[in-house]
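Provenance

Sequences were taken from public entries as deposited. Structures were produced by running a predictor on each sequence independently, with no templates supplied. The record for 2,4-diaminopentanoate dehydrogenase C-terminal domain-containing protein from Nocardioides caricicola is shown for reference.
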Amino acid sequence: MRVVHGAGPRAVRVAQWALGAVGRESLAGILNAPGLELVAVKVHSPDKAGATAGNGVVTTVSVEELLAARPDVVVYTPRTPSVDEVCGLLRAGVDVVTTAFAFHPARMAEPDRSRLLDAAVAGGSTLHGSGLNPGNFSAAVPLALSGLVRHLRRVTLTERADWSVYESTSITFDAMRFGRPPEEVSESASELLAFNADLFRQQVWLLGDALGADLDEVVTEHEVVVAGERVPVFDRVIEPGTVNAQRWRWVGRSGGADRVEIDCMWTVGPTTADWPAAQHGWTLQLEGDPSVSAHLMTLASLTEPRTLAEHVRAASVATAMQVVNAIPHVHAAPPGFATSADLPIPRSLQGFREPASP
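Predicted structure for 2,4-diaminopentanoate dehydrogenase C-terminal domain-containing protein:
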């Protein structure tokens, strides 16, 4: 545990890496959290450098300038993570919280796991990955609710989402490959889909490992359904005969019995998929003694009128805040890896305090 000597605790110095949909929200979270001090912001494109990001900090493309600001923690939120980048930060003695990967490094493929661990040990730093799903809804929440249960038999998280309202069409069409022929929508056909699937498998392993399921394997089941009509989605179109529905199931089994499952049913517009009826959002079920069920959603407000765009953005806010609010716990953790099973449950740092003026 890191101890700061002196008259009193100082603020944790935080740098933000990347300002995409999630990064913009984590930046706002850092600026409004008591006990955190923004000291650097790294952007990807030179045309975004030199802008004031808050607290007098000017954006930069330089990793050297970021490190020169002496951050204690970096909030790392690029769309595609780089093990080399994160190893460099960890080896420099900087803790990393990320929404991009490393949700359960113990089940991460080699040699990435060893490289990250060696860098963290060498730098005396800590790596923590979390978010929404994978993240809070598939790890922190089920682990917390398991405290109500004496004996577990099965844990299931079902996610139902319509991606047609998600404005980041590059993710919907390019990364997730909606609008492609069925044979192009699989782990074997896409490195990004394979990477994404591995993150969810890590979450299943995390719950199994943390709750004593003694899983023998985590398997992936994948099904796609094609559109029967044209589906316009912002600046793109899904044509008939191309994929507009994907169902991914990641199932952890022990002794042939399903113990932990994440079931994601994702569509873009109307679908003919014959799938189980599920409420939009996330439904968590813990079957055991006793059994517990909870439905989870992220919305801009439950009581006030908001636009659809604001409701969609709420998921990015939640993703970002799961790691921002964990910063004090991560910074106090021993060097190495810290998962959602290792850390105390994060609570809102800003709480009821009004946001700072822009």
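The CA atoms of residues 126 and 249 lie 31 Å apart.
Residues 3-7 have pLDDT under 50 and may be disordered.
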